[in-house]
Design brief:
The complex is a heterodimer of chains A (194) and B (618).
Chain A (H helix, E strand, L loop, with lengths): L1 H9 L7 H29 L11 H24 L3 H31 L8 H33 L6 H31 L1
Helix pairs in contact in A: 2-5, 2-6, 3-4, 3-6, 4-5, 5-6
Chain B lengths: L13 H8 L18 H6 L4 H31 L9 H4 L3 E4 L2 E4 L1 H37 L7 H21 L29 H30 L12 H32 L10 E2 L2 E2 L7 H34 L7 H15 L14 H13 L1 H15 L8 H23 L2 H7 L3 H31 L5 H27 L19 H31 L41 E3 L2 E3 L16
Antiparallel strand pairs in B: 1-2, 3-4, 5-6
Classes of the chains: A mainly alpha (194), B mainly alpha (618).
Chain lengths: 194, 618
């Protein structure tokens, strides 16, 4: 454990650890990508030849699901900080399960779109929904991978609240909140646009 | 330093200062063997030391620069000597030299592929990765006083993603259908319909893959640069004490992080259009009388997305060069940089404006002319911060004790190129004049001078200046001067005449002009340009020879601070290992441009301020 300790130590003069700040910067970068996609949506929509369709209800459920997952992960973090091992393990697992459920619900959403007759290639209005939610799902996968590592740590490593593990948890939490918020934005974007 | 009238009566020893006032980060105590540099592979290949990664970026960039400029020579031969036989190139280019009646000529498809690859390679691999990658890596940790980047691991990945991008692009050169040939901007439909041209199939697939890998590299690098500058500055290193190099790299990284993701979105939609049948960018296209199934796409939308990256990209290229030049000019003319804060604010202004001028690349694409007005105004406003910078560089040189060496000559050359190329930008920025000038050689001349040659000059200045820091040896000065004058005269000889052909309306990207009566009288001018390009290329070979010769046989560095510079990188040992400083990290006491203050030639940033002394730049 000596090498990582060095790393934390020489960053300690700063209020915010370098890794955390780097994550924020990366989130800004991802935001730009979705800003580009959603503004393309607006520009393309203004050009006409645009198929209007209501967003399937499933997406509302997935939105609620991902918000709950974020809440669960946050509570897990608080439990971890306060040393409540049992609550921490349960809440963490709940967050992971809700994360997987989100992907499943998104898939249901795409199926619902297909049943409505909105295929990937029908009209750009539909293509945008598939592509944007698909790219978002890819980012969710990254978050799930991070939570999976956190779950492994929770159940394999002996329970100890160290600076290193707290930081690691905070990074996962920050990213998960970010992709969660991103979906909420995309969801409201889609329903206000259609 | 012989020319200097001032002596540097240092009252302090820098090493003592670093030990006494420096910041103890317990870096060396915890070191159980250097996990970063323990064997050949971790030292030279998968290195996590920012200094080694910088060298990797530089040498890979040089490799691509040679490939890219050789490509330009081949298509320049075609443009200058369309009647001559290119049969002698057949051993290298194979089937791309088409032989009829014993006369070999360059295949037209391959001409386009060469132009496309030349653009892609130079813009992304050489002037983005090779320039910003090299010097951000080398100088950010050294000049802010950090042991390494915030994440040495991500930094290593940044290089290896760049390397992979290069491998994929290199492989695409050998495809039987040729590399991508739709221009470096990859406009649809050439980039989407595989049947559009021979390079639009597998060539475009590899091109897109390569660039996605490249963007990953830029983003990983950028995250590191920003975090390191904001989080790992040493004690006393406030933002207003950062050398201008660091300001430039920092802002460059921010621009990159905000604009490259937009390019990824554009590519993503292109890939969906290519492979999954969507029609984001394709609309009602007829091929051989058959209408495509795609309906309702907008190719102009792609241009918006592309140039939202594309324009900031030119500042991603030029800002690091500006930073290097500012530093080199101050050090080599033994004067503080003129208008330090104005320099910083103009970097910030340029960065901000770079995001709201993208449509000036699209004046003739059917963009609403009223919207064009908006973009014209902001484009022309960029002249203001640019002029501030030029004024400050010239004022820095004014009455300086300039040492004319490779570094300073190229820095001065940069200023010359930036003025010449910048002025033509004012013509092109006007949407009305652009009706005549768009897509002509005037544009080619403009951007080659202002961001191609100028950025190269900044890079050369940086290499000559920091070569001792990289390899503990000097580059040969005589060869450097020959290189400078050859390149300076050669670059103007290549690009100056293009302004005239452009004003006469000669379009860019044409395979040959000898069939056009209107342009036939430019044949000799085109020959002149080609000859100048070949000669200039050989001056670059001289540079490459000098570079590699000097790595092993150059004059050895005997003192830590050969240029008498104030910044922190020159307080590290001559052969700095991983972690840069042997003991404590130096604490910074003053701004980086104390030259000629209190009758001293220079005062290092680690020297405490005298009683009642005011810090510079404020």
């Amino acid at each position: 454990m000596n090498a990582p300790a060095t790393r934390v130590e020489y960053n300690r003069r700063n209020k915010i650890p370098a890794a955390k700040f780097a994550l924020w910067v990366a989130c800004a970068s991802i935001t730009m990508m979705f800003a580009a996609l959603t503004s393309s949506y607006i520009v393309r929509r203004a050009a006409g030849n645009w198929l209007e369709f209501p967003l399937p209800k499933v997406f509302l459920i997935s939105t609620i699901d991902i918000v709950l997952s974020s809440v669960a992960l946050h509570l897990a973090y608080r439990a971890f900080k306060n040393g409540r091992e049992q609550a921490y393990k349960i809440l963490l697992s709940v967050a992971l399960i809700l994360g997987f459920a989100f992907l499943l619900l998104q898939y249901q959403g795409w199926m619902a779109l297909q049943n409505m007759g909105v295929m990937m290639t029908t009209n750009p209005s539909g293509s945008f929904v598939y592509v944007i939610s698909g790219v978002h799902a890819a980012h969710i996968l990254g978050g799930i991978a991070a939570i999976l590592v956190a779950v492994l740590h929770a159940f394999v490593l002996p329970f100890r609240v160290t600076e290193q593990r707290k930081l690691r948890f905070e990074l996962t939490l920050t990213y998960w909140h970010f992709v969660d918020f991103l979906w909420v934005y995309l969801f409201f974007f889609f329903i206000t646009q259609s | 330093m012989a020319t200097s009238t001032l002596s540097n009566q240092a009252t302090y020893d820098e090493d003592v200062l670093i030990q006494e006032l420096g910041y103890d980060d317990h870096f060396h105590e915890h070191h159980h063997g250097d996990k970063f540099q323990s064997n050949f592979i971790t030292t030279y290949i998968f290195s996590q030391d920012h200094k080694m990664i910088a060298k990797q970026f530089l040498i890979t960039g040089m490799f691509w620069a040679i490939i890219g400029s050789l490509m330009s020579l081949v298509f320049r031969l075609q443009l200058g000597f369309p009647e001559e036989s290119l049969l002698w190139l057949k051993p290298f280019l194979g089937k791309w030299i088409v032989v009829s009646n014993g006369i070999g000529s360059l295949s037209q498809e391959f001409y386009y592929a060469l132009v496309t690859m030349h653009g892609t390679i130079l813009v992304f691999f050489v002037l983005t990765a090779g320039l910003s990658g090299t010097f951000s890596n080398l100088l950010i940790p050294l000049q802010v006083g950090a042991r390494d980047m915030a994440s040495p691991m991500l930094n290593m990945f940044s290089y290896w993603f760049f390397f992979l991008a290069g491998v994929v692009m290199f492989l695409s050169l050998f495809l039987s259908t040729g590399p991508f040939s739709g221009g470096w901007t990859a406009y649809p439909p050439l980039s989407i319909l595989p049947q559009a041209s021979s390079g639009s199939g597998a060539g475009m697939t590899l091109w897109a893959l390569s660039l996605v890998l490249f963007v990953v590299s830029v983003l990983l690098g950028g995250i590191n640069y920003i975090t390191t500058v904001l989080n790992l500055r040493t004690k006393g290193m406030t933002m207003w004490r950062l050398p201008l190099t660091i300001w430039a790299f920092f802002v460059t990284a921010i621009i990159g992080l905000l604009s490259f993701p937009v390019l990824v979105s554009a590519f993503l939609l292109v890939i969906f259009d290519r492979s999954f049948g969507t029609s984001f960018f394709l609309s009602e296209i007829f091929i051989g009388g058959q209408a495509l199934e795609n309906v309702g796409g907008s190719p102009v939308l792609y241009q918006h997305l592309f140039w939202f990256l594309g324009h900031p990209e030119v500042y991603i290229i030029i800002l690091p060069a500006m930073g290097l030049v500012s530093e080199v000019l101050a050090v080599q003319s033994r004067k503080p940089i003129f208008g330090y804060k104005a320099m910083v604010f103009s970097i910030l202004a340029i960065a901000f404006l770079s995001f709201i001028v993208w449509a000036h690349h699209m004046f003739m694409s059917g963009v609403n002319p009223f919207i064009s007005n908006f973009f014209v105004i902001f484009t022309l406003i960029i002249a203001v911060p640019s002029a501030v910078k030029v004024f400050n560089w010239i004022s820095t040189l004014y009455k300086g004790n300039i040492r004319f060496n490779g570094a300073s000559l190229f820095a001065i050359g940069f200023v010359s190129m930036f003025i010449s190329g910048g002025l033509t930008g004012i013509f092109l920025g006007n949407s009305a004049i652009d009706i005549q000038l768009h897509d002509t050689y005037f544009v080619v001349a403009h951007f080659h001078i202002v961001m191609g040659v100028a950025a190269f000059f900044g890079m050369f200045a940086g290499i000559y200046h920091w070569f001792p820091k990289m390899y503990s040896r000097f580059m040969n000065e005589t060869m450097a001067k020959i290189h400078f004058w050859g390149t300076m005269i050669g670059a103007y000889a290549i690009f100056w005449p293009m302004h005239y052909t452009g004003m006469a309306g000669v379009p860019r990207r044409y395979y040959a002009f000898d069939t056009f009566e209107t342009f036939r009288h430019f044949a000799e001018l085109n020959q002149f340009i080609t000859v100048a390009a070949i000669i200039t290329f050989f001056f670059q070979v001289l540079f490459v020879v000098n570079f590699f010769y000097s790595i092993w046989y150059g004059k050895k560095m005997t003192t830590k601070n050969p240029w008498g510079a104030t910044t922190l990188e020159w307080t590290t040992p001559i052969h700095a290992g991983h972690g840069n400083w042997e003991g404590n990290i130096p604490a910074v006491q003053r701004w980086p441009y104390d030259y000629g203050k209190h009758g001293r030639e220079f005062i290092s940033q680690v020297e405490p301020m005298a009683e009642g002394e005011r810090d510079g730049g404020h």
